[in-house]
Write a structure and sequence with these properties.
The protein is an alpha/beta fold. It has helices at about 1-30, 35-60, 65-85, 105-125, 210-220, 225-235, 240-250, 270, 285-305, 320-325, 340-345, 350, 355-370, 380-390, 480-485, 495-505; strands at about 95-100, 125-130, 165-170, 170-175, 190, 260-265, 315-320, 335, 370-375, 400, 415-420, 440-445, 450-455, 460-465, 470. The strands form 3 sheets. The chain has a 5-stranded mixed sheet with strand order 2-1-5-3-4, covered by helices on one side. Strands 8-7-6-9-10 form a 5-stranded parallel sheet, with helices on both faces. The protein has a 5-stranded antiparallel sheet with strand order 14-13-12-11-15, sandwiched between helices. Strand 12 and strand 13 (about 450-455) form a beta hairpin. The longest helix has 30 residues, at about 1-30. The protein starts with a helix and ends with a helix.
Length: about 500
Amino acid sequence: MRNRVLLLRRIKNQIKEMWRATLHGLNELKDDGDTTDRVQETLKQLKLRHHSLMIDAEDLVAFDRPWQKKVAEEAEKELITKIVDLQYPKNCDEAPQFYVPLTECGYGCAFQHLASCFEQSMANNLTLVAGFSNSIYSTDIKEGEFPIEETSSCPPPTNLKGWTEVMCQLTQCAPRNEDLSRNITEHKKVFMKIEFVPTSVGFKPPGVTDEYWSRVASFHGNPKAWWTGQLLKYLQMPTEGMKNEINEALATRVDFTKPIVGVHVRRTDKITLPGEDSQVHKLTEYMEHVADWYDKYEMRLEKENKVKTAERRVFLATDDPAVWKETAGYPGYTFIGNREFSETAVDLVKRETLEGLKQIIIDTALLSKCDFIVGTLSSSVTSAAYELRQAEHLDASDDVASLDYSYGAVNYPNRIQVAIYPHTANATTHEIELKIGDIIYTDTNLWNGYYLGKNRRTGKAGMYPTYKVKDSTVYYSDIDKEIMDIYRFDEAEDDEGNRFQQILKF
């Protein structure tokens, strides 16, 4: 049964990839000056056929929902039990602990880092203790005002005397300046300084059994997003006061009883600061995906003999007030959101306040409630909204469209795939060789029928057709040395990292 689910999921994904490749090719014809009615009509008819196939594929997958729901409930219950047992020990003085000060970056980024550390603490049976006083919002927040609940019944340490510093990379942690083979459980109390731990989506979380991960993969199309969503649901648990503000926003700002698409447009510092990975995308790029979602939704209504049209509503969350002006070009859509926060969010000083933090928490919560999310997954807010959505639904893995990277950390192995067809290398088009059985570390989907990644056998990085690989059913979790040799942390100075950026612009 599991093999059938995986095959159905692959067919569904390949329908999407065929459409992306076809659309990319036809758009290039259009860009070359061929703007004839025939090209436009071909695109229109292909889109209708694509939507029809996707609806049929979704209906086919739905036959497995009853048994998948039972498996999902059991997996979630096991995870929650593990979390509660670890985070609420009987004696904090005796409990092994992992102290992590909140990273000095924005809300989404900081909790992304904390979720990675939470994986490590669970794998090593350590109680995770988070320190919120180090956050970028702490200068404006008095003690006891932080709007997120403490992660544990154990308080943060007042000093680190007797605590051992550790460092983490991908799926392993070790005492700093010691070999990665050393286990952090050799020390009772460990801490990590403020530094980012990349979340490698391609790996099974450390400490999780193959049997458990296989169960998650049987009901969810993106197991790591489901897993991280469950962790964030716990880590980002709002205080009672913050919960009331979220509920008020849910009750007064957006009616979620009717279809709505969430759009997150991240600009400002994500574009201008050194080391960031985003580019400016106009609202029209987001709205293409919004229109596609509503077109398919209305086609499903037609198939079910219901009303053929739906009110096209968009929940817009952005840190750039200029985006609201761009919405004037879409009279057929109703835009909902907090314009006032967009005006203040453009100012980093105002954003990094208690009120700014609350509004980001509310925006993320509302985005996660939308039927579909359009954004840039290089943004940790778009990613967090997508992950939180997984924690509330059986399988919402397809409920996102990203204008840049696919889900996961930039320039890290976000999928482990296996070649099922050979492919000939082409230096001109940056395509790499594949032989059947090759292991591929996939970085991102280029949204044009190609992936970008690196072949483990040849060590070559480049592009390859999406239909020529499949996701590996071998769950990697302890191949860090090999991965470290390929994905070094000094990407900014790494020729291979620069090559990846060149291909992305190709």
